[in-house]
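Record 1 of the preview.
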Amino acid sequence: MSRIAILIVAAGKGERAGLGLPKQYERLAGQPMLRRTVEAFRAFDSTCRIQVVIGPGQQELAAGALGGLNLPSPVLGGATRQESVRLGLEALAKDAPDYVLIHDAARPLISAAVIGAVIAALQAGADGALPMVAASDTLRRKDGDGRWSLVPRENLYRAQTPQGFVYAKIAAAHRTHAREDVTDDVALAELAGMKVQMVEGEEKNIKVTRKEDFALAEKLLSSGDVRTATGYDVHKFKDGDHIWLCGLKIAHTHGLEGHSDADVGLHAITDALLGCIGEGDIGQHFPPTDERWRGAASWKFLDHAAALVAAKGGIINHVDLTIICERPKVGPHREAMRARIAEILKIDTTRVSVKATTTEGLGFTGRREGIAAQAIATVKL
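->
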């Protein structure tokens, strides 16, 4: 079986976007764009080795964007994209793969179909593979006299990434032609005499460069298969002096009884997310008969559900939670709860809603025998 590595180039400053951070670290539909790009490849094949190349001084930004993904430490890039790629390739040399796919971090909408086509071309014997899209617009070139002349668009294509190569050949090409100034890795491969095959790219595989590109990318991300599911959980009170609710430790006259920390809020959201991707319920993943989960922090359950969503290429659009109890009062903790849930799910707080209600003294919650929570989640796949 072929060993494949993914080299994601994220060393640029991203100044054309006109935003506060380098564009690869700006949030796109609630997550840093770099993380979305990495997770697109993870969703294609979770066994692929992924190496990220970042710019000097971006270590803290990268750590925040990639936290919890268990990737190799990012490699520091150079002054140019070409140098950054070469340094990334050298980082792969110790346990060299058969093939390497080199991809721009600013193309977060890469699909499994394009990734698969690039790999298939390499496995069929090509030295390299380049996804391209035929030019569809009328093209004009400004001439020296200031006039605009028509450029026939027949046989004109737009190059995209990932550009895939036989690792040993592209690494040698980068070393041999390090002083050459090229626009992409295919140009350098052709200098080295490598045979590069074109494969079909996709219009949606846009390169997010300007501020308006973020709006377009978010619109493209929001289209597709949107799923909604609910979750519900109940825990009864016991002796104690605090409860865990939405990831927060809150002082109270009682505790909550459960095999884990009995966080009804996080349990309900976990079940809602699992429902969106058809992965059963929390009890299947963390059985109450398993001593490993006795007293466990419920944020681990929610983090697991979010990871399963990401592994399927899903995007958490929104979660809405209603806590049903007489006491404790939720209002004073609401914003901290939203922030904690957003932190665990790695989404923006604007995508998290926490509400509370009572049952006007009716039922077990009205008698203050326990707490209930119900959640609804929306995931785009």
